[in-house]
Amino acid sequence: QVQLKESGPGLVKPSGTLSLTCTVSGGSISSSLWWSWVRQAPGKGPEWIAETYHSGTTHYSPSLKSRVSISVDKSKNQFSLNLSAVTAADTAFYYCAARSVTGFVAYWGQGKLVIVSS
Amino acid sequence: EVVMTQSPANLSVSPGERATLSCRASQSVSSNFAWYQQRPGQPPRLLIYGASTRATDTPARFSGSGSGTDFTLTISSLQSEDFAVYYCQQYHTWPPWTFGQGTKVE
User: Fold this and answer.
1) Cα angle B58, B63, B64; round to 5
2) Which positions in chain A touch B57 (Cβ < 8 Å)?
3) Residue A32 vs residues A35, A55, B89, B105: alpha-carbon distances, Å
């Protein structure tokens, strides 16, 4: 059973960079899953941010593409998210997730609340 | 971007009653469609994929139907643990994969 856990700062200053890491346990990051970041503002539906495969292929949401990068560290069984030039609108719960090759999200982390505020 | 629209936003149901939730896609997503349940303070949990296939551990009282643009999640007899927010998601067209705004069953 794959387990995911987010880590990183819970408070980021406006115009700064949000950086989060997801540690994968119970499975290999080189398995047939897409490693994803999804965020959810309080009271809103989830929003897909980005995803990556262990081969290095990445997909980014068009609305965030100019500010987002996702990467994999196979040696640590981790993947990471960087979101630059953040504003208050980026305040949300950030989930790391593992998507099946078919498309649905099979595994979710517990989520990390990130607040953008000075 | 495929827009997913859920209705109703809030659904008031009593324990033991049947609940019917709807989701409409702005364009056909075939059967590349999932339902998730989210309880307070928890991440979403996969309930249904492929529009009608129950995920592991999803009770039989949950059933999904539909294809193309119109989908339905039915809970045949609501249990106390079913009071939650339900989201639909399409995984037919990238970018990006998109979710609905949720239906709160209360």
Assistant:
1) 115
2) none
3) 10, 10, 21, 34
